[in-house]
Structure formats: C-alpha cells, structure tokens
Amino acid sequence: MEQFFAILSRCSLFAGVGQEEMGLMLHCLGARERAIPKGEPVFLEGDPAGFIGVVLEGAVQVVRDDYYGTRSVLAVIQPGEIFGEAFSCAGVETMPVSAFALKGSKVLWLDCKRMLTVCSNACQFHNRMVANLLRAVARKNLALSRKIQFMSQKTTKEKIMAYLLDQAKVQGCAAFTIPHDRQALADFLGVERSAMSAEIGKLKKAGILDCKGPWFHLRDTGEEEL
Amino acid sequence: MEQFFAILSRCSLFAGVGQEEMGLMLHCLGARERAIPKGEPVFLEGDPAGFIGVVLEGAVQVVRDDYYGTRSVLAVIQPGEIFGEAFSCAGVETMPVSAFALKGSKVLWLDCKRMLTVCSNACQFHNRMVANLLRAVARKNLALSRKIQFMSQKTTKEKIMAYLLDQAKVQGCAAFTIPHDRQALADFLGVERSAMSAEIGKLKKAGILDCKGPWFHLRDTGEEEL
DNA sequence: CCTCCTTTGTTGGATTTCCAACATACATTC
DNA sequence: GAATGTATGTTGGAAATCCAACAAAGGAGG
Asked: For D21, which residue's CA is nearest its C1'?
C-alpha cells in the first residue's frame, strides 16, 4: 500500500496527513486494495453502498442507465480522486449508479461507517479526515450548484457567458484556459456542440471575447462596474 | 432557546439528539439566536463564511445576483432547515450569495469551526452531529445531481418524464403528488411553464399519464421491464 | 351569485435550437 | 508529402422553444 503514498497524499481525503499516520489510518479504516481489469465493473447499480472508493491507478467511469436504457456518463474518476462518497454519506442503502474501469485500475475501498465512528485507537487524524470528507462533499455540492447556474440560463450564448465569466472569476484573470475541449464543454453546459461553436463565433465577432483552443480572453466591454 | 426544541428536533443536524443534550451542544457550539425583520438581510454576499444557519421561525430566501445584476432565487429555507453549510464546510472565505428574511424570522447561528473541532466537553453527541451534517450535505449533493439529470434531458417532454419517473421511484408508487405548482415545477426543470403545460397535455392525450393539480399517475405503457 | 384573483391550459408567430452534413485546420503516422 | 484521424467551425432546413396574450377553471370574500 505504501507504493501509493504519493497518490494518496494528493487525495482530498488525506490532506494534512503524513505517511506514517496514513498507514495507521488505512488499517484503522479497514482499507482494502482491489484491482479491476479494463472494462470490468467496479461496482454495479444495486450493490450495497457504505463505501468510499479511491482510485489509485487507471481511471473509473461512473454511469447511469435511465429508464429507457440510455447510458450517460456522470463522471470520470482519476487517480487520487474519490467516488461513491455522496451515496454512502447520504445513507442510501444501494448504489443507484454503476462504475466501470476505463483502463486496468486499482482502487482503495474504505468503509464509510468506520470513518464516522470513533476508532478504538482514537487516532488523532480521524477528525481531520472526517473534516476532509465533509469538505470534499461540500465542494462537490458547490460545483454542482454552479453547473446548475450555467444550465439554468435560457440561451446557449448565456450559458457560455455564465461559464466563462465564472471561470474568469475563479481564475482571477480575464485571460484563462478551460479544462474542456469543445465537445466536453458542450456536454457540460447541456448544449449542442455545433450551436455552441456558432455562438462562440458570434461572440468573437462582436468583440466580447477572444479564444484559441482552450484559451479564452474576455474583453472589457465597458459595461461592467459602472 | 428551549422554546425551539420542537423545531430543532426536526432539524437534520440534530437527528438523534435529545433535549438535554441539545442544550449542552448549543452552548458548546456557541449558538446565537438572531431575529431578522421582514425584508432585511440575513447575510450578504461578501460576508465571511464559516457559519451554519438554522431557521427557527419565518422563512429565509437565498439569492444570487449575476454579472448583469439579475437576481435569481436559489432556495427558500423553512423552519428546521439549514443554510450556509455548503459554503462553510467547503472552506470558502466569503459568501458568494445573499439571503433575506421573507417574513419576520429567527435564525440560529452556529460556528462551523467549533462543529468540526473536538469540544473541550468531549460531548458524546458531537460526532453524531458531524455525521448528521455530512449526511445533510451529501443529500443535498444527491438532490442537485438529480436536478442536473432532469435538466440535461434535451426536450421539455423528456425533462418532465425524467422528473416524474424519479418521483414515482422515490415515492414507490405510480400515483403520487408533487410538491410544486406548475410554475415552480417549470422553474425547477428550467423550462417554460406554458410549453411544459402543453407537453403535459400531450402526454395525457397519449395515455402516458394522468394528472390533476399536484397529483400524477404514470400509466403502465407496457414497454417497461420486458 | 358575482367579482376579483390566482392558477392552469391554449394558441400562434418570432426566435432558437437541433441535427446532419460538410469544410477547415491541425497533428500523427507511414 | 500523402494519408489518416480528430477537433473545430459553418451551414440550412426541421423541430422545439420562447413569449405574450388570452381563455378557462377554480377559490375567497363580499
């Protein structure tokens, strides 16, 4: 397990936890390592919840099959990131989504109950870890709220602008790069890629923004902060 | 403070906490009661975060003013419900939204740091409370995810059906009542009320559902569970 | 019963989006 | 350099949505 210290130290759950303590805590949490071949399920809809997963290696895709059998990708979890925590912390009995390994992957399996119960060792970092978990869930919460803000805009143009203005604010600069390609951005905002592309073109012609690939620059239109 | 025991005992934060313990915990958390006249701010954008609010009486509206000054209502908090917890638990410095009292209201102000730090009294319910908080934040998380699922559907009809199928699943019955009027449902799903009304009419004519006011009944179309 | 008011359903034209198809740009590989 | 593949931009007609305005259905209060 020690081989993954570098990964785990970058995991939000273990922020502020040193290597020695991490080893103790993993034991105290009943951590188990699992290897999943490419394409195989990490867990399936209907499986009991109550765990928190950490991707150590590879990548895991979380999917939901709707009523009509259409599959949609909810998230792709990279090494150091966690999954399943929202369902487990919310106290749902069984997972309402499934997850599959995109590549050959290794995941760490933590027991959510043991996380929330005072361990017999009374390890000093237990509280820190719960606070880390709470922070991670709360941050996901804010990310989801922001996404809803963007999606709630009426037109494609407004959705793009809401997203870009937020990015500029978050990154603290009118010039910034975004972490999505055009297709992923369109999916994220819930719009058509081609329509979005057309709107971005209009915004460029109108002098409201400039962009090249993932790089954007919002121009000062003189209307703000009067 | 004891006068609000009935309200607080229904608050998700205090689930499983008895009246005597609640009094001790409120003291231990540095709880303060505040009265806010109708229309006055509960907190304003830019105020320091780090608190968790509980509405004891009245109602509180959380709003966000976007870049262009347009105000949108993010939530209405009723007695027994909490607010501000996502921002405080996520560790943001200042509130990115504002809140106003819809009526003359009383709110309880809890210090988030004291919630997450082991109290000197080492009260036995402290851990329970942190778990309750985590559960509340995680549940909000799931609610937001579901909303995104609905809003991600392409057409108005698909959004309505996704919502209604989810409600039927949650309520465990093909016949159920929803907690929104038509306007609120349209706002929630991010569609036009009139367009939604028209689509609901079509679905009724097609025999896919029946409804009257807030009551809906999804008919078995024979296509499911083949 | 009547009026006022709110909620919900209906309609038609302007606007926007969707969709498929194609054009262009750029990187990779052979 | 040619061939290939991927990402992005562009276009036009079909479809859906938006919007405003009005119609219909109920509820509250006189």
From this structure: B194
